[in-house]
């Protein structure tokens, strides 16, 4: 048996991808299906492990490095075609050739290296927007919102999907309490700045006071143990990284402030004076979206074009405890939970199957974007594609938070996308380990391997906006 892995073909176009022909040499598995419009297909590919040399050649074994295959796809009803190829320079390589196709970010003739992941998946995603343009997970899509304004300008935020970062500020680990380490506290491998570059637009930031400084914190109150957790990036650093991004890209960035604590004083909730100090620190965010006397308006009903037609916008949402108010800060670009109601319910399980079933069912039960107001369910929906460590996982490096995060990303592209419909899709694809696809935590705990970056989650969000929301006449008006 040779090295096997998957290629997920995500067809976000209105046309089936039909197989023209396929052939292979020395591949153990090379069988390609039709990919129905608006769906994803997961294809298993396996290279051979046959002997090379004279005896191998005499008995049909060939050479290990000669493995290869090609599959030619037609996009039905169009002249467009593309080719899937396999070769084995080392551990295997899958490529896409746009031999008679072009996307907005990759011209005709482009050869796109997807790599190969043993027992994992690589992805090829193409979707078609309302203008008929093809988008893919190749090329430059850092400012994916602005590039998509032709389709998204007049959609409300409730009608748009975006990537989101759970515990966004926990991209590093600084010691906090006894019992905490980076494997059970750090949720993101990339900094907030790099998460932005990989496509994230919704940031779960949890500021805590630690040694008198505002930092990201990840703390939980554990029965019989008390508070356990640690600290991540400083608030100053996160603000600077967001400012650096919005100085260059006219994108909408939603910052959700929650889980605030005073870790210097027995993990008490912040009082009003401390919240005011936090607001003052957050005023360092440039390009804040500001409204005078916002009242009780639900800003998730505003259109994307209201935020970023000619500028970047940072929407600062604050989950305020009882007794805490925005006060004068309500006129300075700060909003509370009444201004942006959320459906946010995670699965609280380390079992991937349970998490997937839970999140897909909650989406089905709570999202129905239809013209009939009596039947419509459209609260801004956080799709928590995250696993939660169990007690038995805390000392298991393979079950580190970041490892759990990457372990379910392949299923987000395949299972979740296929579960979404034009009437029921989420607003935030909410993940740990955003922008990476391989497990970064190994033994010992203090070693984090160097893993490659990927913006596939941004392409996935674009595919949902094009292939799911874009097929809903209530949203598009056509």
TrEMBL record:
PANTHER family: PHOSPHATIDYLINOSITOL-SPECIFIC PHOSPHOLIPASE C X DOMAIN-CONTAINING PROTEIN, PTHR13593. Coiled coil: none annotated. This is PLC-like phosphodiesterase. GO terms for biological process: lipid metabolic process. GO terms for molecular function: phosphoric diester hydrolase activity. InterPro entries: PI-PLC_domain (IPR051057), PLC-like_Pdiesterase_TIM-brl (IPR017946). It comes from the Eukaryota.
